[in-house]
């Protein structure tokens, strides 16, 4: 028996932080659960690897990394006399470990197609509740913290806020694996600078430059990695592939796909359906059976499908012959768009209802500082809290305005002259 | 036109080396080829990620990294007045870029099941010849070098020898992504120490300590990563899954699988078949359509297959509930093995011909220094070459003897008392 | 003979960049010169090591590092078809190698005491001209570039501007050795993004986020390292020590010091004296004989000097018992200052003219973006240049305003109540 | 009062490990002591910076780093149920912090000249006892551990043995700052693998490859850094400079030097003198007043000394115009040596008793594995301990034999033909 206890105190090798040791039984057991193991097969950055070949790290590693930082944060806060009981510490660790459990493969694309209208946060909560039942209510406090339903608000803020352990880990990890070294953030120092005032998470005054740099690094990661135009076009193409596949299934065409993916292509599913027990458990079963491999393997099969829209887009993704994407500060004019679509139709011999898969527009936005999702509070020497935008020389108010860029995508082989 | 030329001089972000720039058109075009793009979907270390969650890097990154080191080696040798023409430089770069092109998903497992008897080296050559046709014989010199069929032997040795760029990259890269920092090798210094004497690749005298450390680091990586017992058991289980699947297909049972995998499960294929044009092109077509996602997605489907051997092993891999593995210096005695098998049969209610999937033995070996695959030559101050084993204080002759360890695997739930 | 040539192509080990190879004879010979070797004994960050124990790197390493980046910049610009002749390349390399040759030990303190009114830039030029004579005018072009007296302005800007190789290296290096990892800048990427338009150094549009991050990292390094309050108080104390020593020497008191330091304590020296040949060569001789060891060793001796001001301050520096420093947004009020001085006088039994060595005030400023020293130009897609402050979402105009902070220093043992 | 306690829990920035926090008052107070602060001015690697420009790190940083690793080791051992009381933990931390307190500037050279016959270990103990008096016997347990006079032998072994925290830190740190990346050791993993059996420090079986790699990396660091031939010649020249200075002082010549150095040049001092209280305290006072700056500053002054031996060698060190050194497996033959000396005498016009300063021979040795200073014990699965040389496939017995190399030094300008 004793031996088994020891076994649960495992040490993991993490390229980013070195050794990470698991320090409680329930954490170990949650990691062993198929819901969590499945995150090993879901890439953190979806299709970003089309631009950054090293960015193959998974949601599994990220969740473990965030857990590691959470423990550092707890230690640091406790050193500053912030009271965190052992139960609260375990609960907030569980909350961060599971905060992304509801992600599916290529989440952004999926959320707009297969589980339309259901965010990964909703799904995370759904799965946490399911796990809570399986684990005999041991996750109740973690869920309260996750839902921001617990008096010590700072615990929730460690899980979800502008300076949460989620961001601390993903920025550093994504920077590490993409090789975009400038995106590196000083998570160590920021964590050492965290404090609590009136149950709110705040940053000690002298941490202000680290927070500024964190925000600017985050901004850089957005434009350089997450919103890289080649990543954007790949993700939109994946959305179109899944939409087309759904349409074909609806029309009764046969499509190769593993069972769970097939089920999701066949079923329309909305937020309302979650209140119907049967539908919910069907969704959970099929959703948690899915991972990157199902999508990739199916798309490869679809390269040979007789539907030329499906096969064109599938081949484009598989062989990395993506559509061309042009990004600009303003959207393409209507006339221009009509003209390009006409050329596409003529030159490629498309049907009218096929054009939208080959020529499409969209926009991307990025806030460096999300004033609405809770400001960052700085703790002054006199123990008062000030909003970052008032404490810093950098004009974060200006930066909190969304920056929006517009793009148009079309086949490279199109002759626009 | 000019613009297109510029586009082929791409810069890639590599987490290990930073920026890598592609400096020739044909290199760019080869990377764009579907055979090569496919390497993006094949993990370099197969199932090692069951132990090292960060080890998700792909054969794509490795091939590019080895190319990068090759260019460093060429620069360094040219600085030492070693003559390498521009054509030779390009050819040896192509050779290293494509040296692993013949790898399939989970290569070790595959080579023992689906393409039994055909090594990835054979397949690499096969695909290089295919590409040579497509690229109008531009790869001929590269192929000669790859086959060691070119007078300047050192060029081949840069591609395949104990100090080749393949190893330089994979040791450093695998160490980086697994987080086993001690495996890090000083590839920079070793490359700076390379020299050529009588057309053979040699190491300058003062590089001897770096080479020693390289060999010991390699040894460490073998035991710590490549031959980690948990990785071994996972790989063996994968072999058994594929064998079982083949058997079921042979018996006429239906098995979910994407077309190329299905084809490979249905066809027995040997080295001889490569001389028959039709069979060869069938193999190439199906083989190059395969990647990790097909295997993973299929195994997930097989978790629900009525054959309990297949489903047991599949679930074990998917949910990481692996068999127990015990490693020792000596093999388990026959009596002991018989006894364990009997217990497995009784306790798990197995049929006789099913036992071998649940209880099996094997051995793993590791040479630190492969004297037979060509010794490492040290260039003395007086310009004579000495074998490393005579130049070093470390007894590499002793180390060149294979170290063999023996293991037995069986279900964790088995009660051995 | 040939052998000697080879010897000048040396390879240096740099902890920041790895191997750095010297690629020309004159570069090697300049590094060998005593003026340059002397930089080995001058710390890059002077007294910053009182806060950051790892910050012991020298001006020698920095100059070599900046040379290394200069060569990367030249390569990158040439790839973009910017014309740089071999002579220009060598000259700009010499210019960056020698840009800091005029630094003395603890430069900031020295410039305010021993060589009052003569900046290190003036001294650098002085020494470069001296070297030019010794090297038979081989440095003439380098000097023109250094003085911004050469038509291709971008060459000067690579040596001295907001994005020069000096800053690229020192920020990265200071961040590395201080351990303030957040200060790391992506010098690789910025260098890759440099371009030339109308003979001016510009940054390609897509490098804008890297430049933003560079500026914010620089700002962080200023507040966190260069202007760290403990570093400030140590530097001011050093200034006071040297001032006091000068005063004592003037009064005829004996002071231990190595000859060159003694000479400098004895001679008042101003910018005008540089036009008098004898005085100039005296200054050069004594100045280039000085390094950190003379200052440190003398201050240690002065710990036992009968003058209690000198010995108090010397002991404080040597044993790191620094004065207390308080920093605030506003200066201490006159009344408050008078009061503190009175207390110091009474409690410590000081003479009136001694008080200023124990209680003093000052201010520190920091511009993140120095609009006056030449704006950073961004090259738009349409090949027009825009000032960074107009191209970026960050309000650099606001940031270009100096941030000024005020401090007061006084002995820790003072009872202010 | 409370505030002051908090102040002693300081956080230091270390480029190697990141943040290091000091966790006890006495540790803080010891670091504040002038004996310890003095280590800030003593380079860890003495003259190695003539070859590795980045190797300017100090004994201060090393001692703090070793303390940091000691705390990791204590944590790791306690997790394995090894009993270490809080008092023992603090004592072993003090012991490692002060283990090198007896080092003077350029220790190796000094020990052979100024404090001939007194090792730094003896001096460390001397200073620790002095501190013990000042700190009211709070260091008694630390001293017992340091002297291996405490029953739990493993505590001493953590401070001084083949796997002590001293080596763990210095190898990693020296590798970091010299830029010899291959010397990096996996201190994290080795520390995690430490265990205790029968009060002896042992290594868990699965740590064997890490230990092997540690020993080979250590060996590499010896030949590449510590015993680099250019470092050797510089150190020998420093010894000769100090010997010559002593001789001149004895002859009554005037020599510039700070007081403590002057005192040491004037006094012959041996191990026996340590038992005479007055002599001992004189030595302590002068020795602890010395640091690198005194030696360097004096040698610079000596460049102009009329004694041509002293000035020749001094200039050679200052301007890095070192003697030539040739290293070989065998010593130079007597006839050859006589001949070279004769040439030196004739060509350089030396007096007979001056020759030995210009032409000299010597030898360097290196053990990879010091069997005599206690073998490394491996803990087998069956909880028995085996010597590493019996547990490893690498022949450490062979490697434990000293490797000896011989060298001869002479002026570069000598014409040997």
* Overall geometric form of chain A: globular
Number of helices of chain A: 20
CA-atom Rg of chain A in angstroms:
23 Å
CATH architecture of the largest domain in chain A: Orthogonal Bundle
Mean pLDDT of chain A: 91
Classified by CATH, the class of the largest domain in chain A is Mainly Alpha
Structural class by SSE content of chain A: alpha+beta
Strand order of the largest sheet of chain A: 3-4-7-8
Strand segment tally of chain A: 9
Secondary-structure element sequence of chain A? HEEHHHHHHHHHHEEHHHHHHEHEEEHHE
Largest interface: A-B, 45 and 46 residues
User: What composes the largest sheet of chain A?
Assistant: 4 strands, mixed
User: What fraction strand of chain A?
Assistant: 5-15%
Q: Spans of chain A of 5+ residues with little confidence (pLDDT < 50)?
A: 1-6
Q: In which range does the helix fraction of chain A lie?
A: 40-55%
CATH H-level superfamily of the largest domain in chain A: Hypothetical protein af1432
- Tally of discrete structural domains of chain A: 2
Distance between the termini of chain A: 76 Å
CATH topology of the largest domain in chain A: Hypothetical protein af1432
């Amino acid at each position: 028996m004793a031996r088994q206890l020891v076994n649960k105190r495992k040490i993991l090798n993490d390229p980013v932080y070195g050794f990470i040791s698991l320090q409680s039984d329930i954490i170990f057991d949650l990691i062993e659960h198929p819901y969590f193991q499945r995150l090993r097969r879901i890439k953190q950055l979806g299709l970003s690897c089309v631009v950054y070949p090293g960015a193959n790290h998974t949601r599994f590693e990220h969740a473990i990394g965030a857990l590691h930082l959470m423990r550092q944060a707890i230690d640091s806060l406790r050193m500053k006399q912030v009271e965190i009981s052992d139960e609260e510490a375990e609960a907030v660790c569980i909350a961060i470990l599971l905060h992304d459990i509801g992600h599916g493969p290529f989440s952004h694309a999926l959320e707009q197609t297969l589980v339309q209208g259901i965010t990964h946060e909703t799904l995370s909560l759904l799965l946490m509740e399911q796990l809570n039942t399986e684990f005999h209510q041991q996750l109740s406090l973690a869920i309260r913290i996750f839902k921001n339903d617990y008096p010590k608000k700072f615990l929730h803020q460690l899980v979800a806020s502008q300076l949460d352990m989620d961001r601390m880990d993903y920025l550093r990890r994504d920077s590490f694996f993409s090789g975009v070294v400038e995106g590196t953030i000083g998570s160590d120092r920021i964590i050492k600078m965290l404090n609590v005032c009136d149950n709110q998470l705040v940053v000690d005054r002298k941490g202000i430059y680290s927070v500024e740099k964190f925000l600017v690094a985050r901004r850089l990661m957005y434009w350089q990695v997450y919103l890289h135009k080649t990543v954007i076009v790949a993700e939109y193409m994946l959305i179109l592939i899944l939409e087309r596949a759904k349409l074909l299934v609806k029309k009764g065409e046969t499509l190769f796909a593993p069972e769970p993916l097939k089920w999701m292509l066949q079923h329309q599913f909305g937020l309302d359906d979650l209140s119907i027990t049967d539908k919910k458990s069907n969704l959970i079963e099929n959703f948690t059976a899915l991972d990157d491999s199902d999508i990739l393997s199916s798309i490869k099969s679809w390269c040979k499908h007789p539907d030329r829209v499906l096969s064109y887009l599938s081949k484009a993704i598989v062989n990395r012959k993506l559509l061309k994407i042009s990004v600009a500060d303003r959207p393409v004019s209507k006339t221009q768009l009509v003209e390009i679509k006409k050329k596409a139709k003529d030159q490629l011999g498309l049907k009218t209802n096929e054009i939208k898969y080959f020529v499409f527009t969209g926009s991307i936005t990025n806030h460096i500082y999300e004033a609405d999702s809770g400001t960052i509070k700085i703790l002054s020497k006199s123990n008062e809290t000030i909003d970052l935008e008032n404490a810093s020389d950098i004009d974060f108010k200006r930066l909190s305005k969304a920056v929006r860029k517009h793009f148009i995508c079309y086949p490279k082989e199109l002759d626009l002259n």
